[in-house]
Amino acid sequence: MSPPAQIATAVRVADEASWGQLLRALAQTYDIWAPVAEKNRVILRCLSPDELDQVKLDAPPTLLPAKKVYRAPEETLLRFRKGEVEPLGNGQHPWALVGIHPCDLRAIQLLDRVYTGFFADERYSHRRQQNFLVVANCLQPFPHCFCTSFQSGPFARKEYDLAVTPLFGRHLVQAGSAAGEAFLRVLGLPETTGSELAELVAAQAQAEQAVTRKVNTDNLPRLLNMNVDHPVWDQIADRCLSCGACTAVCPTCYCFSVQDRLNLDLQSGERRMAWTSCLIMEFSRVALGHNPRHERVARVKQRLYHKFSYFNDQYGQFGCVGCGRCVDTCVAGIDPVEVLAQLRR
Ligand code: SF4
Ligand code: SF4
Q1: How far apart (Å, rounded) are the C-alpha atoms in residues 304 and 98?
Q2: Alpha carbon nearest to ligand 2 atom 4, residue
Q3: Whether residue 279 has its Cβ less than 6 Å from ligand 1
Q4: DSSP conformational letter for 40
Q5: Euclidean distance between CA atoms 63 and 250, whole angstroms
């Protein structure tokens, strides 16, 4: 059997022992960041070599997505003292992200468009150049997922080094880059048999069918532009708490602020960068105190217009990957799938 278009390179089989060997080999070159279970949640964190058996490939989306690896929620850019500035380096070893979901991989590609485009961010670009991406295809999508609407899952299509599908006690591994291919060749993993490949193709079709939440993306930017005064905006603004949790967990939200903090000696301090959110009232306040998004309804609109209209205008792609984290996290139960469906009723 020849592989279908989305499985265009040879697929190899790793049993439990060879999967462990693969992780240990990766750990010789890279720091390993992977999803692990902690306190009833799954989080993405850096693992020590003796924690590699904790990597979870079939876990729900991690609490925070991979963006935290490239841009930490808070980090120091430089320290200063009167007359001196000490820029801080990127301070990291090359890393491998292992077991990220296909939607999170797609989100990294969207962040690349933002951070390595016209206004290139050196810090981000440097970190992106030094990594190896191992995506874990989703066999059983989670209740809030709607990745198929944005072609971001449940199986990865491109721009990974390795894709792994845990199936019937084995790991079916596929290279998506020259680095991934070289890595698999060194390990000497056998290729799948025809029946294993057929199982993989069937698993992909089944996973796609299991994603039942959908966004109709036909003319979506136009639909939004025609519905600026739709009553749904006031309805969700009445429920929204402006907490910003939806944007913190979103893998494609990228806004940050930069602040100088002066020490009590009034001679020294540091410049810090921190995530921020368009849902927070101060976000849009400008000099002399004017705030074009003082009303909460303007802020809830901004979030969804940016994802489904402005991002598309700028980059030709939607700014959402359908991971469902915002739905899972919002205490007010605000769900983009539901909001966009209401605009079509
Ligand atoms: S998580 Fe929900 S309540 Fe909080 S800002 Fe986002 S939409 Fe509003
Ligand atoms: S808007 Fe929600 S579903 Fe879309 S990428 Fe962000 S967190 Fe995921």
Answers
A1: 30
A2: 320
A3: yes
A4: T
A5: 10
pTM of the model: 0.94
pLDDT number for residue 118:
83
Supply the pLDDT for residue 5. 45
Strand 268-275, strand 256-262: pairing: antiparallel
Q: How far apart are CA 115 and CA 118, in angstroms?
A: 8
- How far, in Å, is the centroid of ligand 1 from the Cα of 207? 29
Whether residue 154 is preceded by a cis peptide bond, meaning omega within 30 degrees of 0, is yes
Separation of CA 87 and ligand 1 centre (Å): 35
Q: What's the pLDDT score for residue 3?
A: 47
> Nearest C-alpha to atom 7 of ligand 1 is from which residue?
240
Query: What digits encode the pLDDT tens for the residues 196-218?
Result: 999 999 999 999 999 999 999 99
Q: Predicted confidence band at 89 (pLDDT cuts at 50, 70, 90)?
A: confident
Q: Whose CA is nearest to atom 6 of ligand 1?
A: 246
User: Which of the ligands is closest to the CA of residue 146?
Assistant: 2
What is the average pLDDT across 321-326?
98
